[in-house]
Amino acid sequence: FAQPLCGPSRASLFSGRWPSDTGIITNAHRTQKELDESECTMGAVFQEAGYETALFGKVHSMVRFSGEYDTKCGFDFWNSWDRGGPRYRDPLLGTNIGGSQSASTLKQLKMSLRRGKKTAYRKIEHVGEYGPQFNYEMISAFLTRHGRAQSEGGTTPFFMYWPMILSHGPGGPRPPNESLPLTDPVLEDETEIFHRRIAIGDELIGKVLQRLKQEGLDSNTIVLLVSDNGTPRHYSAMVDGVVVTGAKKQNLGDESVRVLGLLRYPNVVKPTVINDMVSMTDVIPTLMEAAGITSFPASKDPPIGQSFWQATVGEGTLGSEEGQPRLDRWVFSFSGNREPAVVAHSTEWKISNTGKVYRRNGFYQLTLRFPRTICRLNLLPMAQDVFEKTIDAGFKFTMPGARTTHTKLCTLVCNADLLPECEAS
């Protein structure tokens, strides 16, 4: 489970914390806080553990640290779109890679990266280049660096974060087809353009996997691929025989937050499906366990998620106790767009701050249930948690089964009609 928007999702992925913890609930970076340095965590975990770290792609809520990703966020090398200027054709990208400040062409930057050369941060306009392909070329150079080092007996491991620019539109007033390579035929239909962006992303992911194999790195490299939110509402797809229409920004439907998650580790992770609840907050603990990292940077806020590593290797389930799945685990999603909402999700239930309760009947299929369900089926503790996170997010909580809204927290109890209400003081 992700968040219904890319900014909050990436902030949760990178910090291991909920949007109510980070304060990043929308993409409105001009009016809300960015990540604190104590929350710019993922790269720092691996850098402190002795990994060489790199970042290639779209920097979102940690853009305030542009030029300091190495010291503030734990990335030794980076080539990033720092939320300013074009990202696709003729991209404007920031980097610290280069033997000198004059290194600016793709060829020069790749050569510098293969040699581990760094210089002062600067932004470079890469005229004639295509942003996603450019970042792939930099990734390829980074993998070549480590492939060569491994073949020569090197033992320094690497961690790479690739927050893709795809499959987002070009942004601003630019026409949608400007998100495609200059060599592509001109497309006018926005759905066709979106599908083409997805296909390009697939192609580049495949090329990275192939590059890992060519460099002799695939057998000892963990690859995790996740999406940061559902698609916009005017796109749809067939998923397990069900037509799913996108719902980006909308928090009450699974279509906005239940997303792709794939993990690959040859000879260790066997093909399987994890049916436990997994969220972006679980990624840092999972990768730490997989890498055998037991210490956490003292300057960083610890993640609140749980590792799902044992479930991927077939030795347990997420949060299992005595081998039994933790099917009562809940994860949360937040939306500050349109109708502000906080939603708790479990394998069977969904509770929102709007007072609504849903039961899951299948893949992306929900049924609205009576508010008394909360008291009858002992869901009150989770309704209380939704209440608390709603207030933390600065939203209003609507009491299930009533029209009253609350902006201050109280303790929920079940009344004689089996409906939640505030405990009398």
Question: Can you tell me about this structure?
Answer:
By secondary structure, the chain is of the alpha+beta class. Helices cover 26% and strands 19% of the residues. The protein contains eleven helices and 18 strands. It has helices spanning 6-15, 19-22, 42-48, 69-72, 106-114, 131-151, 190-214, 283-291, 309-312, 373-376, 380-392; strands at residues 52-58, 77-81, 92-97, 118-125, 158-161, 223-226, 236-239, 242-245, 261-264, 331-335, 341-345, 349-352, 357-362, 365-369, 397-398, 405-406, 412-414, 420-422. The strands form six sheets. A five-stranded mixed β-sheet has the order 4-3-2-1-5, with helices on both faces. A five-stranded antiparallel β-sheet has the order 10-11-12-13-14, covered by helices on one side. Strand 11 and strand 12 form a beta hairpin. Helix 5 packs parallel to helix 6 (131-151). The radius of gyration is 23 Å and the shape is globular. The relative contact order is 0.12. Mean pLDDT is 90; it is low at 320-327.
